[in-house]
Specification:
- By secondary structure, the chain is an alpha/beta fold.
- It has helices spanning about 5-65, 65-80, 190-195, 230-245, 245-250, 275-285, 310-315, 315-325, 340-350, 355-365, and strands at about 95-105, 115-120, 135-140, 150-155, 170-175, 180, 185, 200-210, 220-230, 260-265, 290-295, 330-335, 370-375.
- The protein has three domains: about 1-65; about 95-210, Translation factors (Elongation Factor Tu (Ef-tu), domain 3), CATH 2.40.30; about 210-375, Nucleotide-binding domain of ferredoxin-NADP reductase (FNR) module (Rossmann fold, 3-Layer(aba) Sandwich), CATH 3.40.50.
- Helix 7 packs parallel to helix 9 (about 340-350).
- The longest helix is centred in the N-terminal third of the chain and has 62 residues, at about 5-65.
- It is globular, with a radius of gyration of 37 Å.
Length: about 375
């Protein structure tokens, strides 16, 4: 039998052996761990190098296959960024002086339509604007409740340089609103006020507002215009910017595309700015086309009155050849009642080209090529 002292002594004698074994195991483990780390370091860069290549290829392919979807919105946003808006508001309007106010109608015309110009040179900050925008007019006087009349918006009929090309005026094309109620003729408040004002009078003006009807920056764009009555206002501004010689001298924009105006009126005497339009036709035969629909003097193919939508149907093939061009923009301005007729005509015209207008119109709108302002 071993004594207790001998057992303890024997156990202590084995301690160095245990330590040696433990040291051997630890050293081996550390070497393998270091080797694993080194191998991992050499493998990771290879994995990272593969990933960017895949992402780059995908982005390049997307750029090649989807430019048409992404480019139009970018162009529109860039163009709209510098457009002046709400320089003057209802609580702080600018009081502009009337420069001139004259009738645009010929003898035998229906109603009352005037061209009115306001002086802007004393505005501070200056009331600048671009073609396709509107200004607000606050008519003098009070309503039946003793409160100031609310402002009305009117499409601007002049270019940013004004009718005198000095850049200090803004012009409107205004039809006096009249309707029958209980056997009595009611005159529109603001339209009557504007048609009656005289040179030298002060008028409260707000704005400008609007980005829906702006012209594209592209000099090669095609511009299709559909207008009735005073809906000619923004179209007049576009056409002056495109074709008026003095205006062109001031612009850093030389229109090279094709402009096509469809104009609707009840009688020939109601055609607005006709002399200017005829001059543009003579001077720019390759860039301007003018199609009129005079409802009380012309007949459509069915023997009924000729409206603007009838002219659209007559020109369906040529019109949609233009619309299929990505550089073509369509502008619609006039009474709200004209929209259903235009929409129906566009539907039929599109069908003749094998197109679906209900699908095409939203696409044009999304691309910033379909512009509507009706009232």
């Amino acid at each position: 039998m071993y004594s207790q002292a001998k057992v303890i002594a024997g156990g202590l004698a084995h301690i160095p052996v245990v330590i040696a074994v433990f040291y051997f195991i630890l050293t081996t483990f550390n070497k393998r761990a270091l080797k694993f780390v080194e191998e991992s370091k050499t493998k990771k860069p290879e994995a990272k190098a593969v990933e960017p290549k895949k992402v780059t290829v995908l982005k390049t392919e997307a750029a090649k296959t989807e430019p048409a979807k992404t480019e139009p919105p970018k162009v529109v946003k860039k163009k709209h960024a510098d457009v002046p808006v709400n320089i003057y508001r209802p609580k702080t309007p600018y009081e502009g002086t009337v420069v001139e106010n004259y009738s645009l109608l010929k003898e035998g015309a229906i109603g009352r339509v005037n061209h009115i110009t306001f002086d802007l040179k004393d505005s501070d900050p200056f009331l600048n604007y671009v073609e396709g925008q509107s200004i607000g007019i606050m008519p003098a006087g009070e309503d039946a409740n003793g409160k100031p009349h609310k402002l009305r918006l009117y499409s601007i009929a002049s270019t940013r340089h004004g009718d005198d090309f000095n850049g200090n005026t803004v012009s409107l094309c205004v039809r006096q609103l009249q309707y029958e109620k209980d056997g009595e003729t009611i005159n529109g408040v603001c339209s009557t006020y504007l048609c009656d004002i005289k040179p030298g009078d002060k008028v409260k003006i707000t704005g400008p507002v609007g980005k829906e009807m702006l012209l594209p920056d592209d000099e090669d764009a095609n511009i299709v215009m559909l207008a009735t009555g005073t809906g000619i206002a923004p179209m007049r501004a576009y056409l002056r910017r495109m074709f008026e010689p003095t205006e062109k001298e001031k612009n850093k924009w030389n229109f090279k595309g094709k402009a096509w105006l469809f104009m609707g009126a009840p009688k020939s005497a109601n055609l607005l700015y006709e002399e200017d339009l005829q001059r543009y036709l003579i001077d720019n035969p390759n860039n301007f086309k003018y199609t009129k629909a005079i409802s009380r003097e012309q007949q459509n193919t069915k023997g009924g009155r000729m409206y603007i939508q009838d002219r659209v149907l007559e020109s369906a093939n040529e019109l949609f050849n233009m619309i299929e061009d990505e550089k073509t923009h369509i502008y619609l301005c006039g009474l709200k009642g004209m929209e259903p007729g235009i929409d129906e005509a566009m539907t039929k015209a599109a069908e003749e080209k094998g197109l679906n207008w209900s699908e095409l119109r939203p696409q044009l709108k999304k691309a910033g090529r379909w512009h509507v302002e009706t009232y």
